[in-house]
Amino acid sequence: MKLVTAVIKPHKWEDVRTALETFGVTGMTVTEASGYGRQKGHTEVYRGAEYEVALLPKVRVEVVVDEPDVEDVVEIIVKSAQTGKIGDGKVWVSPIDSIVRVRTGERDTSAI
Amino acid sequence: MVNTGDTAWILTSASLVLLMTPGLALFYGGMVRVKSVLNMMMMSFGAMALISVLWVLYGYSFAFGDDVGLGLLGSPTEYLGLAGLMEDLTSESGGLPAMAFVGFQAVFAIITVALISGAIADRAKFGTWMVFAGIWATVVYFPVAHWVFDFDAAGHVGGWIANDLLAIDFAGGTAVHINAGAAGLALALVLGKRRGFGKEPMRPHNLPLVMLGAGLLWFGWFGFNAGSAVAADNTAAVAWVNTLVATAAAALGWLATERVRDGHATSLGAASGVVAGLVAITPACSALSPVGSIVLGLVAGALCALAVGLKYRLGYDDSLDVVGVHLVGGLVGTLGVGFLATAAAPAGVDGLLYGGGVDQLWRQAVGAVAVLAFSFVVTLAIGILLQRTVGFRIDEEDEVTGIDLVIHAETGYDLHAAQGATNRPPTGVTPVAREATSSTGSSTGSNTSGSKGSVSA
Question: How many domains does chain B have?
């Protein structure tokens, strides 16, 4: 079992979700996040006063997947979130020790 | 005889001007950070509450009572508690019930006080602000309103700027805007800079509120300017059109200045340009032609857009630019009359550019400087007195936490479902007693976060 975390551009989330659903992913956790990478932030001006705003709005998508699907899920996210421009985001995979479905108490793979 | 047309227009105008103060609260409230939006708006609402009462008790008498000497102050006792005015159907304005004029002038006093609050955002004790508001209205606004707005009439002697100096200030460029702007500068100096001023970002938290506030100000300002004709007549109509077009031109002037200087035309710039134009046309709307008003508006928009940067260079924290917009805009308008006035307009005076020479210009300058200096010096004294006695500024730690929470025990926005909040019944109400009036039927006697439907007490 792995946790696939993707931080992507907000406007690409709908594409990512559609692609994952088509593949068969039945659920995910989505958080509005903010952050920056190599593209840095942006500048805002209020009555002539400039503010360097470091953080940009991002969406964090978290999907729990079974071992055999990990590579496919990562590839789907990368393909559907890509614009080719700086600031497209990152996807990373981390191990999960155990999972419990709150409603039924099912554990691990059957709880995904 | 009561002139019903005039009376209807003045009561309508008074209501329009009252709406300007909540509009100002939105305009200012949107410009501060999330943690101080309520305090910002409360300073305006506090002014509405307090100044209305003071105006009825003695403010009107200070401003419009018979002059006590040199045109400096109205008789404090003549209209104490508005004595005798309920029966007065033939006021000095002719055919207008005195009470209509009392109401119309009351809302001017309110907004002038509220305007000052923009200079001291995020950091003033609310109690001290209210005390300041009362003292300032009494020793600064009421007398200055007498100077500027109280005209001589049969059996009545008014103020010196209106009757002796003969400066033209139709709706309050000096009495309202230069007055509030100079007071704002004094208070910003007394209270000092906000923590992090010029270093930490202090972005406006809600620009749509600012735009809505500017829109309401513009709407209400038609009462302010056209209502100042104190009649439903041609002067009111000219003032209305000039108020429309000068404001529009000022928005264009501000946006063009921003576009050239910063590269972007911003929504805050549009809202600010609107207010700068309204301020500038206020003293001038009866004296200029509509085309002259466009010129005045363009100049005001551009100059105020440049003036708001002064505080960073000179190092005073006039938080929401009361100086840059109201003091500078008020000066542009008041002096602008001296340049752009035309005898074809209802005021009937030619300015410098219309061949009238400098006669009107120096009168305008003396009026502007007198109000500026008086307001600045007296406000500085009141501010220092309050700072040294009851304290004007909140603690540094409270300022970091946020003034809404510390002073008012509220937060402006509830945007998160999970906050860990628990309800407690109001003091003196036992949970059992409250249970009886609750419709939820809960038997636990305690409310947890989210059970908002049971807060009925």
Answer: 2
- ipTM of this predicted structure: 0.75
Q: Mark whether B154 and B242 lie in a shared domain.
A: yes
In terms of pLDDT, which residue wins out, A41 or B350?
B350
Residues of B in contact with A46 (CB under 8 A): 203-204, 266, 268
Across the interface, do B262 and A53 touch by the CB < 8 Å criterion? no
SS (H, E, C) chain B: CCCHHHHHHHHHHHHHHHHHHHHHHHHHHHHCCHHHHHHHHHHHHHHHHHHHHHHHHHHHHHHHCCECCCCCCECCCCCHHHCCCCCCCCCCCCCCCHHHHHHHHHHHHHHHHHHHHHHHCCCECHHHHHHHHHHHHHHHHHHHHHHHHCCCECCECCCHHHHHHCCCCCCCHHHHHHHHHHHHHHHHHHHCCCCCCCCCCCCCCCHHHHHHHHHHHHHHHHHHHHHHHCCCCHHHHHHHHHHHHHHHHHHHHHHHHHHHHHCCCCHHHHHHHHHHHHHHHHHHCCCCCHHHHHHHHHHHHHHHHHHCCHHHHHCCCCCCCHHHHHHHHHHHHHHHHHHHCCCCCCCCCCCHHHCCCCHHHHHHHHHHHHHHHHHHHHHHHHHHHHHHHCCCECCHHHHHHCHHHHHHCCCCCCCCCCCCCCECCCCCCCHHHHHHHCCCCCCCCCECCCCHHHCCC
B216 within some domain:
yes
Identify the structural domains of chain A with CATH numbers, from first to last: 2-111 (3.30.70.120)
Q: Are residues B167 and B247 in the same domain?
A: yes
Q: Is the model's pTM score more than 0.95?
A: no
- Quick one: pLDDT at residue B433? 53
Which of B262, B272, B321 is the closest to A45 by Cβ? B262
Domain that holds residue B452: 420-457
Cross-chain residue pair B203–A50, CB shorter than 8 Å: no
Q: Kindly report the nearest CA distance between residue A48 and chain B, in angstroms.
A: 7
